[in-house]
């Protein structure tokens, strides 16, 4: 501790490193601790790059999802957790800003050639139906707390702060549950959809 009772940077870095080890062990409170310590810095950086409050929040959320997914890759000797977080936020924010710039470059001429009515492809409809079934099955395999967080956010439309207030849990815990749930869904959906040829991009020979 410093003379004023505040944690030094070295102490915070040590706490972060220990928290990352707990993240690897599946401790939701650990990523919540990292979020509480560094979310404001991450948000400030994201906002500076994307210049949109909602997009900045999305970037921060995606960054914490990425950290949860790659927690086992963290090595303290390569750098601090906050440095890793800042790098992740910066890369995600720049990618989002570049995508937005590319979308803005679509000309009026290109837009005029877009079909007014969407064309319904029977094969695409079957794929969408398969995806819905796979998502429902994957949701059913999540731990109850993680599933409830996602269902509340997506189906009831509550924000993470609203969920935290309603359930009486820290905001960081809600976000860590959502991050772990989204990560688990990605893994769970890869197998079923690939076996059916969804998203493979290949064509029959």
Automatic annotation (TrEMBL):
Gene Ontology MF terms? DNA binding; sigma factor activity
Q: Which Pfam families match?
A: Sigma70_r2, Sigma70_r4_2
Give all residue intervals belonging to the RNA polymerase sigma-70 region domain.
34-103
What protein family is recorded? Answer: Belongs to the sigma-70 factor family. ECF subfamily.
Q: Please report the stretch or stretches of sequence annotated as the RNA polymerase sigma factor 70 region 4 type domain.
A: 133-185
Note the InterPro entries from the entry. Answer: RNA_pol_sigma-70-like, RNA_pol_sigma-70_dom, RNA_pol_sigma70_r2, RNA_pol_sigma70_r4_t2, RNA_pol_sigma_r2, RNA_pol_sigma_r3/r4-like, WH-like_DNA-bd_sf
> What name does the UniProt record give this protein?
Sigma-70 family RNA polymerase sigma factor
């Amino acid at each position: 501790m410093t003379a004023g009772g505040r944690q030094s940077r070295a102490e915070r870095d040590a706490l972060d490193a220990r928290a990352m080890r707990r993240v690897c062990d599946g401790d939701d409170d650990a990523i919540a601790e990292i979020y509480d310590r560094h979310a404001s810095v991450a948000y400030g950086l994201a906002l500076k790059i994307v210049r949109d409050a909602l997009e900045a929040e999305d970037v921060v959320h995606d960054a914490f999802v990425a950290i949860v997914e790659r927690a086992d890759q963290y090595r303290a000797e390569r750098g601090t957790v906050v440095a890793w977080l800042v790098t992740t936020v910066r890369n995600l924010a720049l990618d989002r800003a570049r995508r937005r710039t590319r979308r803005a470059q679509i000309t009026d001429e290109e837009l005029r050639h877009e079909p007014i009515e969407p064309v319904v492809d029977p094969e695409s409809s079957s794929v969408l139906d398969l995806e819905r079934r796979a998502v429902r099955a994957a949701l059913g395999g999540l731990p109850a707390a993680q599933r409830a967080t996602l269902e509340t956010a997506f189906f009831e439309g509550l924000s993470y702060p609203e969920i935290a207030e309603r359930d009486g849990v820290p905001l960081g815990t809600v976000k860590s549950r959502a991050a772990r749930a989204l990560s688990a869904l990605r893994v769970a959906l890869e197998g079923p959809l690939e076996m059916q040829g969804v998203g493979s991009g290949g064509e029959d020979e």
